[in-house]
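go over this record:
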Amino acid sequence: MSLQKFLDWWFDNSGRLESFDQLQHQVDLFDPPDAEKNRVQPIKSGPASLASVCFEVASSDQLRDTLNGFSDRLNADLVMAHSEAISRGEPVITHPSIDVKLLNGRRFARQYRRVLAPVYFPDGKLMVANFSQDIKFG
């Protein structure tokens, strides 16, 4: 899926999780961040999302464990980024870099394109959608 397709979907649906079937495999969904806990909480991990593929996770619990293994500073950055998407009320595109040690002991370093967008379930519950793409060099 392309960045443009994700953004078109978000604007066409005003951030509501409608017509989401074709996108859900490449998107991770998170509860709104809790700044006191300094952590983001995934509730759904798309099986083809960049995080699922690169971190080799198959569930939101595994993604949560992986993110919790990151430094406090990186987790604070994630909380701030998710909070910014909510406060702006629209998708926020950034190009972060990470260099972390995964739970399996493997080092993972990458720059990627990330879109964080506030989304709403039909019952009105607010979430943050993360659609990320690898940035290829060379």
